[in-house]
Amino acid sequence: MLTKARLFSSIFFISVGCAKAPEPVWDTTSYTLEYGGLPEPELPADNQLTEQGVKLGRMLFYETRLSGDNSMACASCHKQENAFTDTNRFSTGINGLEGHRQAMSAVNMLWNTNGYFWDGRAEKLRDQSLMPIQDVSEMNETIENVVEKLEQDTLYTHQFFRAFGSEDISSHRIGLALEQFMNSIVSYRSKYDLFLDGEATFTEEEELGMELFFDEYNPFFPETSGADCGHCHGGKNFSSQEYMNNGLDSIYNDNGRYDVTGLESDRGAMKVTTLRNIALTPPYMHDGRFNTLEEVIDHYNDGLRNNASLNPALAMTMGTGLMLNDTDKGALIAFLRTLTDTNLIHDSRYASPF
Q1: Alpha-carbon distance 332 to 207, whole Å?
Q2: Whole-angstrom distance, CA of residue 354 vs CA of residue 348
Q3: Where does residue 323 fall: left (phi above 0), alpha (psi -120 to 50 degrees), or beta otherwise?
Q4: How does 325-337 read in b/e, with b if 16+ C-beta sit within 10 Å?
């Protein structure tokens, strides 16, 4: 027979065990974005970063249920240890199909303001984030199925409420959340950044490489002529908002930007990507044809192929090449390695939350 005290205790624990989990609360707390010496970014006016929005985007970025067979996530081809890209020449989707372009690094997206993908076919990052999900050669899933899967999990319905104020899950909200997370991934703590802040010292080789990188090409004074890399990969993010044909082929294997704009001047042109963390992101070029930085430098030094839409700044070097010797090449590579941000690849804010 239960005493009154024991009966009360039993009822208490039963009632506690059956109690509902607390309802989620909409939280609009702003996310604190750190970007060091990079220029102040322009955040999307209709998708400001919030703590809960970034958290939801991070969950979705690592969520395998976004794929048709529940085996593949965005992070499968954009790995943190590789500065959020894939070191395979072409990524393989859930059906064993390969893509036809190398996976791009999903880092410092806030400083990309002129379209997404190599050809810029997605206007906004939220648009880009949904395309691989639906691509037959990648995640091969429908947005409708993704929404249905997520709606069955209170972990997600509650998180959508915290991020957006209701449990409604839609393609638009999925895109906004993924955009928020990717916009939060910032690389700004490389040796180069520390050098600019007076917290690191360059070797003589690294200093020479930096000079060559930023000095202009000058065929009339070979001894002081630079590699002029900064002409295209400029600013603190070592990128530009341009699409350029960089002389990979005389005959185009990939029309690139032309397929978006229809302009002959864009035939074979691809987005000029950031060089931050370049040592972590082989292979190189849109088709991953170069395995090493040495091959990349050799291409620009004396391997350009002439074609109708070759970038004029590159075309003017074809008569002499960049005139780089082995010492120069080694120095350039040494400098490019100073752009590696080891903090980025170990930062728990960007790692899987599961």
Answers
A1: 9
A2: 12
A3: left
A4: eeebbbbbbbbbb
24-31+47-186 maps to which CATH number? 1.10.760.10
- The pLDDT-based confidence of 83 (bands split at 50, 70, 90) is very high
pLDDT attached to residue 13: 39
Cβ–Cβ < 8 Å for 335, 278 = no
Burial class (CB in 10 A: 0-12, 13-18, 19+), 78: buried
Is pTM beyond 0.85? Reply is yes
Q: Is the pLDDT of residue 14 over 50?
A: no
**Contact of 206 with 334, CB cutoff 8 Å:** yes
Instruction: Write b or e for each residue in 239-260: b if 16 or more Cβ atoms lie within 10 A of its Cβ, otherwise e.
Output: bbeebbbbbbeeebebebbbeb
Nearest to 238 by CA among 283, 197, 180, 190: 190
DSSP string, 179-248: HHHHHH-----SHHHHHHTTS----HHHHHHHHHHHSPP-TT-GGG----GGGTSBTTTTB-S-EEB-SS
- Secondary structure of residue 114 in the 3-state scheme: coil
Helix (H, G, I), strand (E, B) or coil at 92: strand
Q: Please, is 77 exposed, middle or buried when counting C-beta atoms within 10 Å of its C-beta (0-12, 13-18, 19+)? A: buried
Are the C-beta atoms of residues 311 and 229 closer than 8 Å to each other?
A: no
Q: Which two tokens stand for residue 226?
A: 């630079």
- CA 313, CA 296: separation in Å to the nearest integer? 17
* β-sheet bridge partners, residue 80: none
Confidence of residue 23 (pLDDT cuts 50, 70, 90): confident
Collapsed DSSP state (helix, strand, coil) of residue 271: strand
Q: Which residues of the chain does CATH 1.10.760.10 include?
A: 24-31+47-186, 191-342
Ranges assigned E (strand) in the chain: 243-244, 270-271
* Of the options 1.10.760.10, 3.40.50.300, 3.40.50.11540, 1.10.260.40, the CATH number for the domain spanning 191-342: 1.10.760.10
Both tokens assigned to 290 = 């170069």
